[in-house]
Amino acid sequence: QEFAYFTNSPAAVWVAQNAYRFGFVVSYPQGKQAITGYIWEPWHVRWVGIELAINLYQQGLTLEEYLSVF
Predict the structure, then answer these.
(1) What is the pLDDT of residues 21-47, one digit of tens each?
(2) Is the Cβ–Cβ distance between 40 and 28 less than 8 Å?
(3) Is the Cβ–Cβ distance between 12 and 43 less than 8 Å?
(4) Is pLDDT above 90 for 7?
(5) In angstroms, rounded to a whole number, what is the distance separating the alpha carbons of residues 27 and 18?
(6) Is the pLDDT confidence value at 2 over 80?
């Protein structure tokens, strides 16, 4: 897979731990496949705004969980 090199890289760890500070969330986080319908994709991020991203990160929620659309 073309992004396989990213999966366990220091960059992937940094994105998972810091993206929210800039208004981004990992769209398909590890362990949330049943909710998102997608396998873990640490490179797939979406911008939701800083306030919502912080809220999602602190609560450990995906956007789908937050919006109750899963």
Answers:
(1) 999 999 999 999 999 999 999 999 999
(2) yes
(3) yes
(4) no
(5) 14
(6) no
> 23 in the Ramachandran plot: left (φ > 0), alpha (ψ -120 to 50) or beta?
left
Q: What is the pTM of this model?
A: 0.84
- Give CA angle at 41 (35, 46), nearest 5°: 80
Q: How far apart are CA 69 and CA 40, in angstroms?
A: 18
Catalytic residues: 41
- C-beta separation of 26 from 45 below 8 A: yes
**Among 6, 55, 65, which residue's Cα sits nearest to residue 34?**
65
The Cα–Cα gap between 9 and 15 comes to: 10
